[in-house]
Amino acid sequence: MYLMSHRGRGDSPYQRGRGRYPRRPGIGAGYRGHGPPRNPKREREFEKRVFSEEVQQEVDNLFNKKFSFDPNPKDNPRYLLPSADLLFSGEHFTLEKLASLKLELNIVKDKLNDKDPELWHDHTRRTNKAGLIVKNIRRQYHVEMCTQAWAKFHEILCMFPSICNTNTDDAFYSVHLCEAPGGFIGSLNHYIRARTSTKPWKWRGLTLNPYNESNDLGEMVDDDRFILETIEKWSFGLDNTGNVMRWKNILSLERQVKEETTRVDLVSADGSRDCQDNPNQQELRVSQLHYCESMAAMRLLSPGGSFILKLFTLFESQTLCLLYLLACSFGQLHLFKPSTSKAGNSEVYLVCLKFHGIDTFSEWHLQKLESAYTLQDHDKSIFPLSSLSSDFITSAKQAAEIFSGYQRDQIESNLRLFTVFTKPQQQFLSDVQLFAVESYDKRCSMKYIQDSLRILPDLFLDGIKLSVMALLRPDSKCSRQKNQDSLNDRRKQKLMSWHELHEIPTTSDESISNTIKRPRLEESGDYSEVSKSLLRSMGHQEGEGLGPSGEGRSEPVIPQTQQWGMGLGYEQGTISSEDTEEDIRWLKMGDSKSEMRSLFGDALHSVLNSRFCYCDTLQEMTEARSSAKVLLFTNREPMIHRCARDYPFYAFHLLSPPHSIPVEGLALGEIDTLLNFSSKISQSVIESKEVVHFLDLSHDPSGFSDYLCWKLPSAQGYGIRRTEMSGAVSSGRDTTRTVSLLLEQPVDLLLDEDLEQIYKECLSHSQVDLVIGDCACEPGSLMVYLRGHEEKRARQYFLVQIIIALHCLKKGGVFICRIYDIMTRATAGLIYFLHTVFSDICIVKPALSEPLSSERYLFCKGLQDVNRCKLFLLQELNKDINKTKESDPSKDILEIYPVHRLFQKEFFQFITLSNERLSKNRLEAIKQIERLFYLEGGRETFRPSDLTAVCKIALERAQIPLIL
């Protein structure tokens, strides 16, 4: 796992010297660092304030939302577990009282379904009686990781001081489940250090790994700044996901904890799941998560330890049985809703004290309980209703009624104030908020602690900017956007198909003009009456020019139906690369001393989140890949015919006779026109009086070689035959005089034996000036039809071609490689390696590349001296990948460099901006081609001259003749 801390190395995005964080935001020049800044005038004014009895009573109620289960029921000295045979033996049950309470609450909650989320959030923020507490803590005490979770946990610790006894110097060990971003940990540290500086304390956290691309962003808190700085203290389990609902991860965590301590005093679990689309079933949605958190806690805790679990409503049999299980396992059970927990939500914390110990369970009980530790909801109830104590059921009903009443009353109050919020009501609420701040300080005995007592003494994490992505991305856009639509609107959208959401007609009688909302044309060729009416409403007179002084065009624009299919006003010269010279972003060489570290875990079946792409863009791409018909292999041929006049890539596939250079070679020519690499190589070779040598790793013969042989007639090339590309179509061009094979027999690049054979053969030849790589592992352009798996399939091919290139290239040489998505840590790590050995790199997407594919070209120039030790590590990494495939196909490489290396600002922005730009372009291409695909009968059949014209324009831009 993570063996080394990088704190204090000077390369973290949070280092004070880099100006990421001020040491004390908002502190004046007179601050000396010996305590919180004082504002005597404000304090004197506050002390003079006298609050009414109504205000004081309101605040007292705010801080006393607590319910305790009787630790000494009448019928038993403590609750007892039923027989193991009864566990998971019956169906889930419903209690009439609890069902009635759930219905009453949901009726009130349904009144919010049509509310605008942004307006409602602003309103509830104003009406939050504890709304000023967190701001005051942050301003007055400058606590570490000051989030709302920090304030809630601090209040829990102060309400139940037996959780952590600070009157002794006994060592204290805590484990925090589902903890991101880390507010509980920061709060516990402050609680301990504000009372004693000598008590030993260690902690470990387990949460969904924000850097594991298989974790669904909707299921986790995407705030990683504290995690990044304390990465060595976090456990992400055997699969590297950090999923608490996988038993193997809990066993792995248990082993790590036992290596560090013999006693665990506290386990906290603050987990939840995204329930925005169905808030009425929140309790059912999180019930299995709560069960897994509870079982993990009892597995980890020592006798006498404490467990804090976040629950929601208390209506379902799953929650009722879990409460009973914990009541049988702990000496005391308390339900507590902190004042800083928003009163309008269902959140309530279960505080379990005095754990009896896991040894009190029989072996048969443990086996039955652990068998239900799964990702899926269990279809059986933990206990039958008849086995639950009557006193316990009575207490559970009372608790459910009390806490649902708190929530129901607050929602109804907010609804009333949403309509009418008078000045007296505002003044009363303001007094409550001010008195709540004073009460929180007194009840929690708030104190300031010195920097040296913080978890991260050299940094100041203030609890506001939570994400590395928000810090490093130039537009400061958050990685996850909140829903801007009401619940009713979201439900309507959920019923719509992808095509409907993007206004893509899927029937032949709908035309593309309807979809893109252009004015319809009448038979006369003029604009419709609707358009004329709009012009008249703007004051336009026939024969006069548009504009305030009549300076605009006086004649109406005559719409023309053109053969190019690109829309009104299209000119032949507008076909261009997706990238221009101004779009290219260069990345200068980085630190070549960066350490490499390989990390293996469960293979990614799909990429659900990425540090290197905005989540909204990634989600749109995922939806498009699963819904667009043009990405189906069976639709490839009709799609090509319908899009050939609009996209030159497809026009070249249909050109007859075919162009003598295949389309991938033409794409390389377009890159050459953009970056002028061939001329620079030729010039350097002429100066040294040598011949240009290149190595083509795609396949023999390939379009890349065809282009280079045409562009550099005197060049000498080498190539290989790849077994996985045996279905590739030959270009038909004779390149045998200038391109020779390194090996006679076909090779598999991924096999260690074949790769070593290529090394030896490369070393026997003179070093080359240029290496062309191709990460495609299928003949032709089939990679586009892998539906999101292109990056996974191509990654190892990318690795081995980097190794070959570094063996063969001269110093100052050029490496060009066709790659695919860069969404994962592993692929980004390979590019980071190239970033440390080449003077400049860039990523380009030619217009003559597959528009539906994620393919792009990585261009690296100026090879520097390569550390042979690093090259050896790359070779060993490939061997490890092959060994892992043989021993456990479910595992794969996840990291090549530690994540903090990939978050260096220049590199991070280079990858992110490239991904964002190319992904958006690809999305638009998918939607446009999907529209064209459904235009069956809606467009005239193209003529050969149409294709020739499209190809000619593209070739003119690439400066390649149409016929060679």
Automatic annotation (TrEMBL):
List the active site.
310
The ranges of region (Disordered) come to 1-44, 506-532
Spell out the molecular function terms from Gene Ontology. methyltransferase cap1 activity; methyltransferase cap2 activity; nucleic acid binding
Entry's InterPro entries? Adrift-typ_MeTrfase (IPR025807), G_patch_dom (IPR000467), mRNA_Cap_2O-Ribose_MeTrfase (IPR050851), RNA_MeTrfase_FtsJ_dom (IPR002877), SAM-dependent_MTases_sf (IPR029063)
Q: Name one Pfam family in it.
A: FtsJ
Q: Which domain of life is it from?
A: Eukaryota
An example Gene Ontology CC term for this record:
nucleus
Tell me which UniProt keywords the record has, alphabetically: Methyltransferase, S-adenosyl-L-methionine, Transferase
Every Adrift-type SAM-dependent 2'-O-MTase domain range: 144-357
Sequence ranges of Polar residues compositional bias: 506-516
Residues binding S-adenosyl-L-methionine, per UniProt: 182, 201, 270
- The G-patch domain sits at 527-573
Q: Which GO terms describe its biological process?
A: 7-methylguanosine mRNA capping; methylation; mRNA modification
Q: So what EC number does this one have?
A: 2.1.1.296
Q: Which reaction does it catalyse?
A: a 5'-end (N(7)-methyl 5'-triphosphoguanosine)-(2'-O-methyl-ribonucleoside)-(ribonucleotide) in mRNA + S-adenosyl-L-methionine = a 5'-end (N(7)-methyl 5'-triphosphoguanosine)-(2'-O-methyl-ribonucleoside)-(2'-O-methyl-ribonucleotide) in mRNA + S-adenosyl-L-homocysteine + H(+)
Q: How is this protein named in the record? A: Cap-specific mRNA (nucleoside-2'-O-)-methyltransferase 2
**Taxon lineage:** Eukaryota, Metazoa, Porifera, Hexactinellida, Hexasterophora
